[in-house]
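General statements about sequence and structure are easier to judge against a single worked case. For one protein, we set the task of working out the C-alpha coordinates from the amino acid sequence alone. The sequence in question and its C-alpha coordinates are set out directly beneath this paragraph.
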Amino acid sequence: MLLINCPFCKHRNETEFVYGGPVGANRPDLNSASDEEWVDFLTMVPNPIGPVNERWWHALGCGEWFIICRDTVTHEILETPIEKV
Protein backbone atom coordinates (compact mmCIF):
# COMPACT_ATOMS: atom_id res chain seq x y z
CA MET A 1 0.00 0.00 0.00
CA LEU A 2 1.33 3.42 -0.96
CA LEU A 3 1.37 6.37 1.38
CA ILE A 4 1.00 9.47 -0.80
CA ASN A 5 2.09 12.86 0.45
CA CYS A 6 -0.68 15.21 -0.70
CA PRO A 7 0.76 18.74 -0.74
CA PHE A 8 -2.46 19.95 0.90
CA CYS A 9 -3.51 17.12 3.29
CA LYS A 10 -0.09 15.53 3.99
CA HIS A 11 0.45 11.74 4.10
CA ARG A 12 -2.66 9.76 3.19
CA ASN A 13 -3.49 6.20 2.12
CA GLU A 14 -3.47 5.55 -1.65
CA THR A 15 -7.12 4.42 -1.52
CA GLU A 16 -8.10 8.11 -1.23
CA PHE A 17 -6.51 8.92 -4.59
CA VAL A 18 -7.23 8.33 -8.27
CA TYR A 19 -4.28 7.76 -10.60
CA GLY A 20 -4.35 10.21 -13.52
CA GLY A 21 -1.55 8.71 -15.57
CA PRO A 22 1.98 9.75 -16.39
CA VAL A 23 2.81 13.30 -17.34
CA GLY A 24 3.72 12.94 -20.98
CA ALA A 25 3.42 14.24 -24.46
CA ASN A 26 0.66 16.64 -25.31
CA ARG A 27 -2.33 15.59 -27.36
CA PRO A 28 -1.62 15.75 -31.11
CA ASP A 29 -3.19 18.57 -33.13
CA LEU A 30 -6.24 17.05 -34.83
CA ASN A 31 -5.79 19.30 -37.85
CA SER A 32 -2.24 18.19 -38.61
CA ALA A 33 -1.87 14.69 -37.08
CA SER A 34 -2.11 11.64 -39.30
CA ASP A 35 -4.51 8.82 -38.46
CA GLU A 36 -1.53 6.70 -37.41
CA GLU A 37 -0.25 9.38 -34.99
CA TRP A 38 -3.73 9.75 -33.47
CA VAL A 39 -4.19 5.97 -33.02
CA ASP A 40 -0.73 5.70 -31.44
CA PHE A 41 -1.58 8.51 -29.01
CA LEU A 42 -4.83 6.79 -27.98
CA THR A 43 -3.58 3.21 -27.75
CA MET A 44 0.15 3.15 -27.02
CA VAL A 45 0.46 3.45 -23.25
CA PRO A 46 3.98 4.28 -22.05
CA ASN A 47 5.40 1.90 -19.47
CA PRO A 48 8.71 3.45 -18.38
CA ILE A 49 11.11 1.94 -15.87
CA GLY A 50 12.37 4.18 -13.08
CA PRO A 51 11.25 7.61 -11.88
CA VAL A 52 8.11 8.91 -13.59
CA ASN A 53 6.14 12.10 -13.02
CA GLU A 54 2.49 11.15 -12.47
CA ARG A 55 -0.80 12.97 -11.99
CA TRP A 56 -2.87 12.07 -8.93
CA TRP A 57 -6.29 13.33 -7.81
CA HIS A 58 -7.11 13.40 -4.09
CA ALA A 59 -10.70 12.30 -4.73
CA LEU A 60 -11.62 11.42 -1.14
CA GLY A 61 -9.78 14.37 0.38
CA CYS A 62 -9.16 17.93 -0.75
CA GLY A 63 -10.15 17.24 -4.38
CA GLU A 64 -6.93 18.74 -5.79
CA TRP A 65 -4.84 17.38 -8.67
CA PHE A 66 -1.06 17.34 -8.23
CA ILE A 67 2.07 15.79 -9.71
CA ILE A 68 4.42 13.47 -7.87
CA CYS A 69 7.49 11.55 -8.97
CA ARG A 70 7.26 7.79 -8.35
CA ASP A 71 9.80 5.07 -9.10
CA THR A 72 7.91 2.40 -11.10
CA VAL A 73 10.34 -0.31 -10.02
CA THR A 74 10.28 0.19 -6.25
CA HIS A 75 7.02 2.23 -6.01
CA GLU A 76 8.96 4.66 -3.82
CA ILE A 77 7.45 8.12 -4.00
CA LEU A 78 10.17 10.70 -4.43
CA GLU A 79 9.37 13.97 -2.72
CA THR A 80 10.12 16.13 -5.74
CA PRO A 81 8.51 17.43 -7.78
CA ILE A 82 5.22 17.87 -5.98
CA GLU A 83 3.18 20.57 -7.58
CA LYS A 84 -0.43 21.50 -8.06
CA VAL A 85 -1.85 20.85 -11.54
Observations:
- Residues 3-24+36-84 form a domain with the Folate-binding fold fold (CATH 3.30.2270.10).
- The chain has one helix and six strands.
